[in-house]
Amino acid sequence: MNLGQVNRWRDLAGKIAAACCVIALLGLVDGLLVHFREPANLIKVLPGASVDINGELTDEAHQVEDLTFTSDSNQLKVTFAVIHKGYFLGGDMWRGRLIVGPEISPGEYNLSVIPKRAASSRKAPAFRIIVFPEALSLRKNSASVVRRWFGVSAFAVAAGCLPGILLAFGAVYLLSGRREALLAASGQAEVYRVTRGDDGYEIHFGLGTDHGISPGASVAIYDAAGQQVGTATVEVASRTTSVGSVASDQPIEAGYLVSRV
């Protein structure tokens, strides 16, 4: 590929990477906001579904056999898996599966999980179970914008963007290396650092003694439009990089090109 092709492909890869990052971020935000849009005790399901469920305990329970549940429908069952400490506040919690019978009628139901031998009168918040008649109505009532529009988890969308982000940034890295090599072969390099001083600018660029640059040499500086905006005098040169000083009234920016004079 020539320099023009490399530039076009690098720009395209950069735009793809940026788009994937934006989509992933929006997916993460949408997924996290679901927990603020709906109460933690609200569960939306379909007839015949089986979903994870967990909640707090009002009294100490040492094993799942100490737990039971009450519900206003015999089509709602809970199978308990484990009792554990809460992730944030450290209180006792339980985890299990909510099993919804296939014969249940659409509507709203209540379900409570309690120890079989309660030592206090305080009750844990009851779960609100909303049963929808079919998948489309469940999807349309989702608190997640992504799930409402596309029918998939917002976190799945964010995770799906990760390979695209890695591939796009990898392509940018490889194409940038190819671009630097093509520029260096033609006696050019990109300015990657600019420092403003009292007498002008100090610039750092990717040409060095391996490319015929030595202290005292002059290099021309070109802006993004290809117009010459100044000339730099090389102060320090290593094998592959150099530092030059520029006495210029025009602003010099990172990304400008230098060329051997």
Question: In words, what does this structure look like?
Answer:
The protein is α+β, with helices and mostly antiparallel strands and 261 residues long. The protein has three domains: 82 residues; 104 residues, Immunoglobulins (Immunoglobulin-like), CATH 2.60.40; 74 residues, Translation factors (Elongation Factor Tu (Ef-tu), domain 3). It is 30% helix and 34% strand. Strands 8-9-12-11-10-13 form a six-stranded antiparallel beta barrel. It has a four-stranded mixed sheet with strand order 1-7-6-3, with no helix packed on it. Strand 10 and strand 11 form a beta hairpin. Helix 1 packs antiparallel against helix 4. It is elongated and about 90 Å long. The two termini are 26 Å apart. The model has no long low-confidence stretch (mean pLDDT 90).
